[in-house]
Amino acid sequence: MNDTLPRGPISNLRRSQRLSLAFEVVVTARRENGKASSEDTKTIVITPRGALLLLRTGVAIGEVLTIRNVQTQEELSCRVCDLESSSELGMTEVGIEFIKNAPSFWRVSFPPVDWTLRSPEAKGFRPQIAAPVAAKKTNR
C-alpha cells in the first residue's frame, strides 16, 4: 500500500475510478515450497491500479501474485492489499494492486476522477435550465 495516502475523513477518497466489470483472469500464487498454484476466476471490480476478485485459494495481505488477463494473455505482478471473507460463496474477496503502473491492462478507458453523471460527457446529459416562475394570479 502507499504510505502517502491521506489519513482521517479525507482518506475515503479514491485514487481512481472503479468499474464493476467481470474480466476472466488466472491468478497464480507461488507457495513456500516453490510450487505454483493457479486459479481461474473473474474480477468483481476493476481500477487502473488493480482489481477486486473472488478466490478460493488462501492468500495473505502483502503476498505477491501474478494475474493474467485471459482476453489479452497479458500478465502482471500484483500485491494483495485487502481481504474480506465471503462466507455465502465460500470464497474470499481479494483486493489486488499492480506492482508496476499499468493503466491499460484492462483495455478500458476509465473516466477521470472528477467525472460524475452530471458531466457534459455523460450519456443522456441534459443541462438543467430553471423554468421561469409563473406569477400567481390572485382574485381580488
Descriptive account of the structure:
The protein has one domain: Thrombin, subunit H (Beta Barrel), CATH 2.40.10. The protein contains no helices and 6 strands. Strands 1-2-3-6-5-4 form a 6-stranded antiparallel beta barrel. The chain is elongated, with a radius of gyration of 22 Å. The N and C termini lie far apart (72 Å). The N terminus is likely disordered.
Spell out the blueprint of helices and strands.
Elements: E1 24-30, E2 36-47, E3 50-55, E4 64-69, E5 75-86, E6 91-98
Antiparallel strand pairs: 1-2, 1-4, 2-3, 3-6, 4-5, 5-6
Keywords:
elongated, 0% helix, 36% strand, 140 residues, disordered N terminus, mainly beta, Thrombin, subunit H
- Strand arrangement, largest sheet? 1-2-3-6-5-4
The helix-and-strand class reads mainly beta
Q: Could you name the ranges where pLDDT drops below 50 across 5 or more consecutive residues?
A: 1-14
Radius of gyration from the CA trace?
Answer: 22 Å
User: Oligomeric form of this entry?
Assistant: single chain
On the 0 to 100 scale, the average pLDDT is 80
Describe what is shown at a glance:
The protein has 140 residues and is mainly beta.
